Amino acid sequence: MPSYTPPLRDLQFVMHEVLKVTDEYKAMPRHAEVDVDTVNAVLEEGGKFCAEVTAPINAIGDEQGCTLDQATHEVTTPAGFKAAYAKYVEGGWPALACDPEFGGQGLPLTVNQAIMEMLNSANQAWTMYPGLTYAAYEALHAHGTPEQKKLYLPKLVSGEWTGTMCLTEPHCGTDLGMLRSKAEPQADGSYRITGNKIFISSGEHDLAPNIVHLVLARLPDAPQGSKGISLFAVPKFNVNADGSLGTRNGIWCGGLEHKMGIHGNATAQIVLEDAVGTLVGEPNKGLPAMFVMMNAARIGVGGQSIGLTEVAYQNALAYAKDRIQMRSLSGPKDKSKPADPIIVHPDVRKMLLTAKAYAEGGRALVMYSALLIDRELSHPDEKVRAEAADLVALLTPIVKAFLSDNAWTATSSCLQVFGGHGYIREWGMEQFVRDARINMIYEGTNTIQSLDLLGRKVLGNNGSTLKKFGKLIAQLVEEEGVNEKMAEFINPVAYLGDQLTKFTTEIGFKAFQNPDEAGAASVDYLRVLGHLVFGYFWARMAQVALREIEAGNTDPFYQGKLQTARFYFARLFPETAMLMRTARSGAKVLLDTDAALA
Amino acid sequence: MPSYTPPLRDLQFVMHEVLKVTDEYKAMPRHAEVDVDTVNAVLEEGGKFCAEVTAPINAIGDEQGCTLDQATHEVTTPAGFKAAYAKYVEGGWPALACDPEFGGQGLPLTVNQAIMEMLNSANQAWTMYPGLTYAAYEALHAHGTPEQKKLYLPKLVSGEWTGTMCLTEPHCGTDLGMLRSKAEPQADGSYRITGNKIFISSGEHDLAPNIVHLVLARLPDAPQGSKGISLFAVPKFNVNADGSLGTRNGIWCGGLEHKMGIHGNATAQIVLEDAVGTLVGEPNKGLPAMFVMMNAARIGVGGQSIGLTEVAYQNALAYAKDRIQMRSLSGPKDKSKPADPIIVHPDVRKMLLTAKAYAEGGRALVMYSALLIDRELSHPDEKVRAEAADLVALLTPIVKAFLSDNAWTATSSCLQVFGGHGYIREWGMEQFVRDARINMIYEGTNTIQSLDLLGRKVLGNNGSTLKKFGKLIAQLVEEEGVNEKMAEFINPVAYLGDQLTKFTTEIGFKAFQNPDEAGAASVDYLRVLGHLVFGYFWARMAQVALREIEAGNTDPFYQGKLQTARFYFARLFPETAMLMRTARSGAKVLLDTDAALA
């Protein structure tokens, strides 16, 4: 069975040494008191919970999956899931980043994100139960009526109840405009909702006595398409005015999906039959309200992806040091043994370093994105808030798609380090790969992310947000442009930045004439921009490491950082050489293919 | 459940129009009578068998897996596997390419390879039972004593019995030099073998009454390391002189592995306790004897990889035409429906064409490799035989590693076309991905393939074999260099060929000083050479298609070929731009990483 050690040192490096989050908190009145010690204490406790409570039940969850009792519509989660959730609630973890008005602890999202990464390393399937609950909390917190907030938020914040997002229907996933579920207004101001939902993560389970479903449906007079969709809160059990549970509502689990991975999470078909719900936000404005959850969920997928990358890396590293097989090509390295540990082989190191570079680069990017959200939500200066919102909107599709693609590559590389044993379930590596595969699909497929990035976030505002990110790079170049030791890290980023600026103009011009040109370039474009962002963070991490080393710090952690940064620029960053070519190859070669795809 | 249509048209295109195999057969006395009609009739019958018999039980095999009765050590295969195997034997399929002296039909390996591709599309796990049997047949045919041949070959050829390769032990997979199983010579000339084997594909099952295991073990006085390993034939049931089954031998299944995929194939732990065996080939020369099987097995993995790529492609294509979701970016394409089929989107086409280009390019490469083996085994001219052997030795690691890496990418892309449904087991796409993952590992990991290619097959003879392949490219350039319409296909190949020649010299020089430089470059090098080979075959296929079109042939098949070739050069071939950079980045950035990998 795989093991997991919370990467506290690296989380602290990113938070305190690279991003200096507590300095930023000082400018945010509601987080001004959150200091380094507080952050570290929370990380340590959270890490302990992950390593001791949820990691040990990850393989069991995969093996057992969830089961549905067709008669009662009740779902049983794998052994240990319920007890772990009770401990999670008892520890107050659901409340960590929630609003104190509803019982939350009000800590910054950066701190919450660090905890989420560790939870996902330990057990992605389990973590999706509290993960969806937090998403539902956010949507209700932003758009709920005072009554809804009073009724639901304290229970979601405490974790006593859980939440879901009910979007997808059998005939519509990406294209929510085709949604058919119907909501009939009732005399008492409530709605009766009928429809069929599929792929509802955490949709039914035995962890909590009630589930608050946030459901998209159409009002009788709603316009067609995506502008006629409203959002409703539909509890599993109707809730009495005093907060106690009332009658069973007409919303139940009609079936569970058999999936490639995340078996421990119940992916439910949800049937609504005259289910009682209340409107969240304005009529026909359900999609924007839901998108509050969606953006957080997309950052969350980034956290899932680096979580899986990190845990796969840790286990592959341990195996590579332990497994004795063949001699080093340059002569025996451990003559006392019949063969050398496989970590002596360059390609084994390449596979390990690929995972390490993707995990650590991803960690910096996700933590930075969370910090931007903290600024957006909590900074007193409106301009800072707006700028942060802009930048996080640009980075969100990169966090979701770039990191989940990388996790697929990285977990597969880590499996490969194990040779044949990587293919065997007991070693746990193949579960990481299977679990990682969903991250490229849900919360908007990675193709959708790329269209969102190129179409909406870049070309949609004539590159003005992209220029803001460009300023960060320019600032780093200015700071370190004369430092010879930084040249190996800064030059490739600066060069790619120039290339990308030109290419963005070029593709903008082509897409103006033919929108399919954007569709043909977008996936490659996202990966190029992903590497630009990664390159920037790897350069900043190298900067910190170099300064420490020059100041006489002998902690090998900093040498390790430099080595990983060098590996990243030598071995992963050059993907951009391919991507710039393929992104430029245009739409015709893809679309003029009717005979090929006959 | 996925469907499968045998790609007869494309197989025939590769065999008859590109490689013109029957012209080649004419020069081989034992195949001189095999004409186009014969080949096509066999393909058609074989395709029918795959579509009707083994494809329908592929998902069942994945769902049920194999079960071991711990008391009897007997294994039950999934429902339908035994009946399908009986039909396979009844149809005479095992004998297709076997020696007529032992009951075989003596058809060329190219024909057999086409059948194997289709069998693997239909059901890779099932196909591994006859696949391993053929490998055992080959080793015994090449190295067995007259008695062994008489006893075993007719039964393996008819398929009445099956075979295995027993190499791996718990502590040694890649590094067979560490093998511990022991063989004690007996007075009667036989051996008593004791040891533990793992990962034995088709190691135990209920398809046939007897299994002929080919087992690697050490003689008592054997030298240490890989030069002290001998090969033995160890039947499950001892065989009486008249061919009837005798006593149960001391070789049994101690456990079955739980794997990521290929569940329908029994991956057995094999325990040998005083098992009676007979020596195959010379003492201490077991590894070279086993390598007869290994090379064929590696080409076989290529066939598995294109088989999975083809079937995944077929199903993703059908889904992309059927699934209605969103509008084309350039305006509605099917106004009669609420949305367009997703095949209108450029990136969906990219995913489909990736699979198609990898399947069809791989098909050409695998069939060409099989043709080289036909030349090697059956051509009367010794020089032709030697040249073919040389070339197939060069191509084998590319077939194994390049095609299996491509299949992983391609099956995953096809899954992605299905969005969330791709992650659901019932659709069958995720099984193709899980099954494909083993191909990168077994029969020598892809890293080992790359070391074999660069170290042994390229640098090992100073690039002389590589030059032979270069001559094929030069010949194509000469033929078509003045044909403007071929320029888009030929120029990139010629350019990459020049680059690779320079790089090979460069890496040879560096590796001479430090062998780790070869290890650091080899994986990227293999993929560059893989694209060079693919580029060559795509150019040849485009050549045929262009000639047909110019001759007035209006079959859209040829336009489709050109479109796929264009896609390949625009979208997949540019990977070499990245690979040449990363391959050049050297060993230091990988090996000087002790602090990073602490």
What topology does this entry show?
The structure is a homodimer of 598-residue chains.
Chain A lengths: L7 H11 L2 H6 L9 H19 L3 H7 L2 E3 L4 E3 L4 H10 L18 H35 L2 H13 L3 E5 L15 E4 L5 E11 L9 E7 L12 E6 L1 E3 L5 E4 L2 E6 L10 E14 L5 H37 L23 H33 L3 H36 L11 H10 L7 H13 L5 H17 L6 H27 L2 H35 L5 H17 L2 H10 L3 H4 L7
Parallel strand pairs in A: 3-6
Antiparallel strand pairs in A: 1-2, 4-5, 5-11, 6-7, 7-11, 8-9, 10-11
Helix pairs in contact in A: 1-3, 1-9, 3-6, 6-7, 6-8, 6-9, 8-9, 8-10, 8-11, 9-10, 9-15, 9-16, 10-11, 10-12, 10-15, 12-15, 13-14, 13-15, 14-15, 15-16, 15-17
Gap between N and C termini of chain A: 47 Å
State the assembly state of the protein chains: homodimer
Question: How many helical elements of chain A?
Answer: 18
Topology pattern of chain A, helix = H, strand = E: HHHHEEHHHEEEEEEEEEHHHHHHHHHHH
Q: Could you describe the largest sheet of chain A, including whether it forms a barrel? A: 7 strands, mixed
Total strands of chain A: the figure is 11
Mean pLDDT of chain A: 97
Q: CATH superfamily of the domain at 8-148 in chain A, called what?
A: Acyl-CoA dehydrogenase/oxidase, N-terminal domain
> Which second-level CATH architecture of the domain at 8-148 in chain A applies?
Orthogonal Bundle
- Identify the overall geometry of chain A: globular
Most extensive chain-chain interface: A-B, 97 and 96 residues
- What value does the Rg of chain A take, in angstroms? 24 Å
CATH class category label of the domain at 8-148 in chain A:
Mainly Alpha
Counting helices, strands and paired strands, the structural category of chain A is alpha+beta
| CATH topology group of the domain at 8-148 in chain A | Butyryl-Coa Dehydrogenase, subunit A, domain 1
Poorly predicted ranges of chain A: none
Strand content of chain A: 5-15%
What is the helical fraction of chain A, as a range of percent?
55-70%
